[in-house]
Design brief:
By secondary structure, the protein is mainly α. It has a domain of about 200 residues. It is about 85% helix and about 0% strand. It is globular. The two termini are about 25 Å apart.
Length: about 475
Amino acid sequence: MNNNTKNSKYFINLVFQASGRLFSIGANFLIFILAAKTLGTDLFGKFSYIITFLGLSAAISEFGTTSIFSKDISQIKESADVYWFNFLILRISLCLIVMIISAVLFYFFKKDLFIYAAMGIIALPFITSRFFEPLYQVYGYPWYSTLSSVTYGSFYLFFILLTILLNNNLLFYISSYAAANFIYAVFAFFLSLKLLYPKSEFNWQIIKNILKLSWPIGISFLIILINTRADIFMLASLKSYNEVGIYNAAYRFLDLSATLAIIITNPLLPVFSGYAANNIEKLKHESAKLFEIIAIITIPIAVATPCLSSLVINLIYTPEFSPAADVLNIMSWIGILVFFSLFTTTICISIGVVHFGWWNALLAASINVCLNFIWIPKYSYIGSAWATLICEIILTGVSIAYITKYMGNIFNLFTWLKIALANTVFFLFLNTALFIVFPYNLIAGTVLYLITLFITGLIQVKNIKNIFIVIKGKI
C-alpha cells in the first residue's frame, strides 16, 4: 500500500470517526441544555452527578483494554474471531465486577439517589460498549462508526424529548440514557457481526496478555478521570446538588472544547511520529508553529469570554443558572490549557517520552483533591474551577518541561511576546472602551487584535494568499 493510499484511508477513517463523535457530543450537549431548562439547578445537579458517576464507572470497567484491542485487532488475522470472543468475555467480566462495586458504593454514600442510579448501573455493560470503532476501521467499514453514533444520539434525544413531554421525572432521564446506550450496543454489535463473528473458544492466555498491557493505561486514565471529575463529587458532598448543577452548566462548554481538541490533535500523532523518527528539527519547527497558532486563535476567546458569558448562559439555560457565567470565565482558560495539554501529549508520545505521565497525573489529581477540599467550603464552584485551572497548568507545564529536556527549546521568546502584546491590547480595549456598547466593542476589539497581529508580523499577507491558493486548488 503506497503512502497516498495510506493517507487517504487514514483521512476517511478520521472523517467518519470525527463526524460520529461530533454528532454524539452535539446531541449530549443539547440534552444537557434541555435537562437544565426543565429540571432546574437542583435536579439538574443530581442528573449531572449520576451521569458523571456512571461515566466514571464505565471508564474503570474499560481499564485501558480498548487501546490494546485497537492495536491487536489490526495485527491479528487468522485467530481474530477467537481473540474477539475472549475480548468480549473480558469486557463483560470487568463490567460485572465494576457494577457490583458501583452499586455498593453508591448505596452507602448516596442512598437518596440510589433508585435513580440503579437504572444506569444495570445498563453499565451497554454504557461501556464504546469499543467497536477499531473493528469497523480495520475491516474497511469506518462509516459504521458514524452510523452507530448517530443512532445513539438520535434515540437519546428522542427519549429525552418524550420524557419532557410525558413525565418530567429524573428517573425517566436516567432511563433514557440507559435505553439509548442499550440500543447503541445492540446495533453496534449487530453491525460487527457482518465483519467478524466471535468464535466461542475460551483462551485464558489472550485475556492475560490484554490485561498485562492494559493495566498501566487503565490506571493512568483512572487518575486523569479523578483529576477531572473529583470536583463534581466533592461539590455534591461539601455543598449541594444546586452547586453541582451550576458548575456543570459551565463544564459542558469545557467538554466541547476538549472534544474539539481531541479531534484536531489525534491526526497529528502519525505525522509527528514520522518527523520524530526521520527529522527531529522538522518536528521542533512544526511544533513551535502549531503552539503559536493555537495561542493566537484560542487566547483571545478566553479574553473575550467575560463579555459573552452572562449572555450565553442566560440564552442557553435559564436565569437560575446565571452564576455559571463566573465559572465559564475560568473554564475558558482551562479550555486553552486542554488544547496545549493534548498537543504536548501528542509530541511526547511521538518522541517516546511518556514515563512521567503517571506521576504527573497523580500529582495533579492529588493537588486537585486537596484544593477542592480547602476551597469548596468557602468559594463553592468558583474554588473548584480555580483548582481545575491550577492542575491543568501543572499537567501542561510538566509535559512542556520534558519536551524541552528531550528536544530543546521550541518557544521563540520574541514571538510569544508579540502574542502577549496583541492579547494585552485586546484586553485593554475591551475593558477601557466602555463608551462602545456590546456587541460593537467586541467587533472593534477583534479588528484591533487582527491589526496588531499584522503589525507585529504574526500574520503575514503572503500566508493568507497561500491559504487561498491551497483552498482554490482543493476546489
